[in-house]
Structures are given as C-alpha cells and as structure tokens.
Amino acid sequence: MPQNVFSETPRLLAILAAETGSYSHIDKLANAPNREMALRYLQESLRDYNSLISRGEFDNPKVGDEVKFLHTKHLEDEIEAIKKISNPRELKEVLAFISAKALARTVWLKKEASQTRSESEKEGGE
Q1: Helix 35-55 crosses helix 72-84 at what angle (to 10 degrees)?
Q2: Cβ atoms < 10 Å from Cβ of 15
Q3: What's the whole-model pTM score?
Q4: Which of 80, 49, 78, 82 is nearest to 66 (CA)?
Q5: Which contacts (CB < 8 Å, 24+ apart) does range 50-54 have?
Q6: How far apart are CA 73 and CA 14, in angstroms?
Q7: Distance CA 81, CA 83 (A)
Q8: How far, CA to CA in Å, does 3 sit from each of 56, 95, 119, 126?
Q9: Residue 60 is inside which H or E element, if any?
Q10: pLDDT tens readout for residues 81-125
Q11: Residues 41-50: pLDDT tens digits?
C-alpha cells in the first residue's frame, strides 16, 4: 500500500499528542517491533481517543477542530492495510512514515493553538 494513503492514523496520533502533551502513542507506534504490537498500540490509541472525545471539550481548540476531520472509515482501512503488511522492513518504513506525519501534524496543531491564544490576548488587551 502506498504510504500517501496514511492520513487518518497520523491525524489520530496528532490529536492525542496535541491535546495531552504526551508523545507516547506516536513513539510506541514508531518503535513497534512487529505487526501485532503495532496493532495493539493502535488499539490503545483508539481507546484513549474514545475517552478524549467522550469528555466533549478540548484544552486545545484546534484539536476540537481536527477531531471533526477524522474519518473513521478511512482509519479502519489504514488499520487493515497495516494488518496486511508481512514484510518487517516495509512495516518499519510505514510506521516511521505514520509517526513522522503525526509529529508534523502535532507541531501544526500546537502552533495554530498558540497563535490563536496570542491573537485572543492581543484583542483582550486592547
């Protein structure tokens, strides 16, 4: 499966990282030793994501916006694609790609939230 199809898994991981301030989900997936553990780490991420959205509010307002764009059907397809990877080298490459995209998206989410807060503070101070 071409790597460019992995968009929702990085989005999921970025949402978790940007909202919680923890990169553990991204790091675990990036360092998964095999397919079984990669799927287990995704299961853990989805469980934490479900808890996060059940709260109904987000500390980072950009995360709330990003949640609206997460396509769970595509996420399921990406999980299926990971499940089908039998070559360990290919699996490592795909997981590294997903993790790198997740980190880039996390940086964007944090930067956007920071800019939004700065703009709000400027408006409130004037």
Answers
A1: 170
A2: 29
A3: 0.88
A4: 49
A5: 52/15, 52/16, 52/19, 52/20
A6: 18
A7: 5
A8: 32, 10, 36, 47
A9: none
A10: 999 999 999 999 999 999 999 999 999 999 987 776 666 666 765
A11: 999 999 999 9
What percent of the chain has pLDDT above 90?
A: 79
The DSSP 8-state label assigned to residue 34 in this structure reads: S
Would you list the DSSP string of 69-113? H--HHHHHHHHHHHHH---HHHHHHHHHHHHHHHHHHHHHHHHHH
CA angle 46/51/57 to nearest 5° reads 120
Average the pLDDT over each of 2-11, 13-22, 78-87 and give the range with the smallest value.
2-11
Which residues contact residue 81 at a Cβ distance below 8 angstroms, ignoring those fewer than 6 apart? 1, 5, 6
In this structure, are residues 98 and 29 in contact, taking their beta carbons and an 8 Å threshold? yes
Average pLDDT over residues 63-83: 95
Phi, psi of 78 (to 5 degrees): -65, -40
The residue length of the chain stands at 126
Q: How many CA atoms lie within 13 A of 32 on its CB side?
A: 28
